[in-house]
């Protein structure tokens, strides 16, 4: 946990690598994932850099892999999972064989796909021809009768041939998409002025598109007409509506013969298609075994060349120079990676790593594990911590689930969250392999340890509240004794049980279950949870203010302890800390066992009214026989606290600007520029120097410095901070009342759901109640999960997040840094899988 208290120390390093060892060295650095490179070629166009040809080559390989992967997925072939055996970056010589193999596979797949499309097109045409021939039997029998009748009515003599020619009808047969039939029929009617007789029949089974494989619904049609001119018009209309025309003999015998020939050709074509599909499947199955490995190898190779484009070539063209941020703890790892990279290619000249003296703000790097990563992400969502600033994530691991549980205090609902979180934690190895689960699932799984702790803490607060699905548990019995007889209890609905006669000690753990039956249950819980939320809130804010001391000490701003921390903590403690003290003092002083009337519960003053009177210097007349104050010197003490608190405001407002004005140096100190190597900082293998940017005064770190600001800006800046702190102290204290409000709302919703839903099934008659309770219990479970666990849980989560971001972290956290983004193969591959 020590690494989480502050971000790690970073060093700006300069590395000198021989060109022949550059590829393997960067590959080793990508496997370690602890180096963030800087671009030394900002002024050079991306298309003019040294390794742009290799990057384009990798892009072409990725394109071929994507094409083959698309074809594999189209055939439903499963790709193997290689998360446990991820290959390393390939040798540049090995990539030549891979490139040739992918080229051959792609060419073969393109030829197979084209041949398959051509054969499927022929198969579709033959299928349509067969459908035309089979579905037009009735059409042509009607036409033959019609032609026969027309010829019989033609008359005799020399005009018989002309009359017979005029009486015979021509026809056009084909297939058209079903959605175009009505427009097609309308157009034929218009161009022929009603002289076309169209008969159609819808195909029962859809046909498959050769290119896409999508189903196509088509209709067979036959258009009867008279005359060549009308025939040409009909063909033009068919072309415009993309209708396929097929030859169809008018003779029944010829049609039967053609159908037999078409069916024979279809069987032969189907056999060829089946063989082609088998060959394609064998090729894809062979390729699919190695495709994931090839894909990762190409991605790593492309990332290496992208990184090498950030390097600069020295004047002699014999060395590559790069700059990078490295955590000081990993300097020996980087040095070893460079040595391994040089040894892999047999280079006799070693690579060098030098630490550069710089005054730039380094990136922020917090080393996390699978448990702390979720909490760190919550903090980073607000803002990346400034370099070496105190990291709130360390304390959020406990305070976040605890504040959530205060609002979500129910043993039953907490147990649901606990079981859900435990399932994700125990099955994380299997669940982490799930791809394409969606953004919501990734959020839940990434925060599995947060959910686990939220459920665990909710179970604890549920025990303290003695609340499980709105009911209480009678674990230890009750410490209250009924001193009334049965007739008195039954005849009087407003009996009260006095603590000094009916209470027997303190309940061992949590809330006494007898409060579940009390009429003043809500009044008691409101008072209890309201005070509890204020106490927790003030303690949380005091802890946040105290955290600022660690930042002041680390950045050597010792004056800020006196000029900022002291007035802030005095203002908070003397006003709101005193109010919390009075709550505890009131609980201890006033009880029902005393005979002194001013110390009885009826004389206990309201802490809220007392605090308001304290701030306004007012008095409230006490009740007869009671005292206004809890102890003798309280009014004088309160006036002193208010006066000191008011004096803290000008202390915060003017103290720091006046100190800066008096101590501002008139001499401009020498500032080293980036690129100046520290003396004797060339690293031998195994050495780990301290980063020079972290030595001396770190006032620049974390954006804390004011050396370049004019005094007017400093006065304005400090005035804004003072006003914000004073007002926010009041508003933030009131903001913690959301702990009470959401806890009360959650308990009441749970009680309403029990009384309005589940209790109905429990009150039903025995026989019908068995069935009714089964249905009602299902509805109660559904509403419990949807409303009380998911919706209320999300609400409590967001309110807890706000309490940490605004009320707690604003006291010491600036969040003005930028994240450390190392060159890591694992991060690159995981990022592309999420996309």
UniProtKB/TrEMBL annotation:
GO terms for molecular function: ATPase binding; proton-transporting ATPase activity, rotational mechanism. It is found in: Membrane. Residues 684-706 are annotated as: Disordered. GO terms for biological process: vacuolar acidification. GO terms for cellular component: plasma membrane proton-transporting V-type ATPase complex; vacuolar proton-transporting V-type ATPase, V0 domain. Residues 95-122 form a coiled coil. The keyword DNA-binding does not apply. The chain crosses the membrane at residues 402-426, 446-465, 532-553, 565-588, 637-654, 770-791. InterPro entries: V-ATPase_116kDa_su (IPR002490), V-type_ATPase_116kDa_su_euka (IPR026028). Keywords: Coiled coil, Hydrogen ion transport, Ion transport, Membrane, Transmembrane, Transmembrane helix, Transport. It holds the Pfam family V_ATPase_I. Essential component of the vacuolar proton pump (V-ATPase), a multimeric enzyme that catalyzes the translocation of protons across the membranes. Required for assembly and activity of the V-ATPase. This is V-type proton ATPase subunit a. It comes from Drosophila mojavensis. The gene is Dmoj\GI24258.
